[in-house]
Amino acid sequence: MSTCDRETLQDQIEQLQVISGSDESDPSKNEPISRNSESSFSPSLEIQIRRFLILGTTGGICNLNEKSLDFENFSIFKEAIESGQGAVLLKQVLEIFKHHLAPRHDTVLYGLAYCSRSRDVVSVEKMKFDSEDVKKVFLDYLKKLQYAALNNLEMIRSVTDLLAFVSYYSKIGEKLGKGRGWGRMMRSMIEKWFHLQAPTKLIMECTKYRKRHGWSLRDILKLSHTKPPEGDWFLLYDHIFHFIIFNEVDFSKNESSYNPVSKSLKKEKKANYDFDKKVIDENVMKNFVFKKIECHLEIQKLRKSEDVPRACELITEGMLVRENVPTDLLQYPKIWETLLNDMPMKALLRNLGKLSSLDIISGRNPEKEEFVDKVVEQVTSESGLNNSRTHPLSLLISKKAYSKGKSSNGKLKWD
Asked: pLDDT tens digits for 42-91?
């Protein structure tokens, strides 16, 4: 097994300190990677890393038909870390994510999870070092890499990406025999991530993505022991976290006499709320969060054709998306027409086939011409594509799928 020298490790440690934000004197954090001839890393390894992160393969060909990526092929990540080039790997992960260079986030999130497990994935006892001093520096380098990776969890912008990251992080741990448990650093960074999310954005996504990749937000909150942030927004976040865990709203939290009893732990300390009525009215009760929750919970009870008008009202009032709507209601064109009014670009590209199968944008119905025009305008808008961070390959994949005239399982068909 190859080893690395002390100078290379020291250089990588310095770069990792910049990435983690612990070196405030260097303003180059998250800047594109330098490729000068004096770099201490191998260009061929960098190219392989970049290809894998963007295309899902170390070769130069991207297979558009590939349903899921083979995450067993992470030897390139291990090679980078063991050879003392973890900063190269992490910089590539951050740069590619920041500039939206990958059509999907899977490989990038997996790379971040791998760096976050750097002290687990490398068997230091099996490596050969020139001296104990070099070994000590290498251990410090692994620690810095892990910290730098976890300290950049803010790059995860959505709940679905968070669920994917946690899934990969846990799978790596299980493969290494470390179990699904988290260390203090991981729990702390997950809590920090929740605190950085705006309440309206958080509630929108947690009603949309309840569970992905075998993990739920409820699992993450409980495993990370996340508490609401201190300050005027404490109570609002507490309401959100309560909804995530119990799928309900408990307005008794607004009362000074509230003494919570956890459904799972049976006993819970009274929270240190600020019960100032003005604060509660302005920061909590008037917040759109509760309208979103109210509409989401009500639409879950609707299933029949006579419920469609009310469901459309709830979609508009609560700015609900397709994932909020029960499956039974998705067979009705009126539901999709209402969703189409504010449908995000990526969701639109995923559902072009469904919209055509319901004769909404097929072009055969003159009464639906306004929806055809709306979709054409949206998918051909350069600013809209840029603002939605839609990757060119995603457009190509959507075009290829739509041109087949049927879904991959054959259940949906359109002209």
From this structure: 457 888 899 888 887 776 666 655 555 555 567 889 999 998 999 999 99
Shared-domain flag, residues 295 and 319:
no
Choose the final residue of a domain: 284, 299, 314: 299
Q: Is residue 171 part of a domain?
A: no
CA angle 187, 190, 194 (to 5 degrees): 140
The structure tokens 């404490």 sit at 234
326 in the same domain as 289: no
Place of tokens 């991959």: 408
Please indicate, yes or no, whether residues 283 and 225 belong to a single structural domain of this protein: yes
User: Radius of gyration of the chain from Cα atoms?
Assistant: 24
Name every residue whose Cβ is closer than 8 Å to that of residue 196 and which is 6 or more positions away in sequence.
154
Q: How many whole angstroms separate alpha carbon 304 and alpha carbon 283?
A: 36
Dist CA 129 CA 139 (whole Å): 11
Q: For residue 47, is it within any domain?
A: yes
List pLDDT tens digits, range 152-175: 998 898 999 999 999 999 998 888
pTM: 0.83
Distance, in Å, from the CA atom of 236 to the CA atom of 407, rounded to the nearest integer, reads 42
